[in-house]
Amino acid sequence: MQFKEVINQEETKKGLIRFVSEQRISHALMFVGPPGSGKLALAIAFAQYIACDSRAGGDSCGKCPSCVKYNKLVHPDLHFLFPVMTTAKVTNPISDSFMNEWRDLVTVNPYISENEWYEAIGAENKQGFISKNESNEIIRKLGLKSYESEYKIVIIWLPEKMNHYAANALLKLIEEPPPKTLFLMVSENTEHILPTILSRTQLIRVPALCSKHIRDALLKKEADNFELVEDAIKKANGNYNVALNVLRNIEQELQYLNLFQTFMRHCYKRKLLELSEMTEQIASMGRERQKQLLSYFLRMVRENFMLNIDREELTYLSRQENEFSKRFSSYIHRGNVFDLADQISLAFQHIEANGNPKIIFMDLAIQVILLLKQESETD
Asked: What number of other Cβ atoms are within 10 A of residue 218's Cβ?
């Protein structure tokens, strides 16, 4: 991947190029920023730039043997670590166990989310992690000489998913790195990374993308559907991957909207039997989809509250969402919005911890009923 393929982030690109031109490449960089900002894309483009045989004009050439291999993510001196899990086919997983799936997904969309990755490898209801097996394997690889490039480069996607053993092994590698070895880490939550690892990395802060740059990128894919692109931008809130998925998954977004509408209507009318049937439907969706649905619920609560307090300019709603929310937003107010958000977030945590989805969503429904009732009492 070349820098020119990464959406905007021009200042960050200039800084990375300057590291190479001034020969002061840190052996450990931590790319930090919001989801969908292009952190992984920047890390891959930077690695390709370093390894390129004919870089010029502030970018890799894209044509030399090294670039050709980097474009396919098959360069022998490029290594990846990312969260994986046991599956029906893999009992002791490491990143190499899923490398074909990783290449297929990332070469098409380097802005992928964690949930998309888990779905791609058939995670079902499991959570990904980076284990001690991964640490042992990367120590073995880095003990070998580089094959073709000057540097061996390790890109670690979501290092916050490392368990204690893996994190300590990585710390030792960063403290005493093998010669000509670079670690490029891509994180969305540095609070869950060992402070000793963070202190030994150079932070590269990647800002969220603005609407203009997301629009320009999307119009290249949907040049004939400007209205759909604008809807995607409103929902993206700076996350290119969200905007891209809106274009690709219109039916799924409409399903989430329909579930939110039905759930809230049943809660408002206190239809417990219908809510019980609905929890059965949601329970069959799979844990990652349930988490996505709860994230959607949380976003819609936020957007409806913004409408309630007359801050429509701060909303990120599609036309269909806006049509429903103009009628529903009066029920999301200062007296219940924070409690609603807390209850949805708590349900998300319980789903993530492998709780029973029927119980979790039914309990959420009861809490929402009480909170919507609270509003009617204050009117």
From this structure: 24
Contacts of 144 (CB under 8 A, 6+ apart): none
Model's pTM, two decimal places? Answer: 0.71
Distance CA 45, CA 96 (A): 21
Q: Give the tens place of pLDDT for each residue, 221-235.
A: 765 667 778 878 877
CATH ID of 3-208, from 3.30.70.860, 3.40.50.170, 3.40.50.300, 3.30.540.10: 3.40.50.300
Decide: 313 and 234 in contact? Cβ < 8 Å: no
Burial (CB < 10 A; 0-12, 13-18, 19+), residue 370, is middle
Q: Confidence band (pLDDT; 50, 70, 90) for 2?
A: very high
What would be the CATH architecture of the domain defined by 250-378?
Up-down Bundle (1.20)
Sign, CA torsion 173/175/178/181: positive
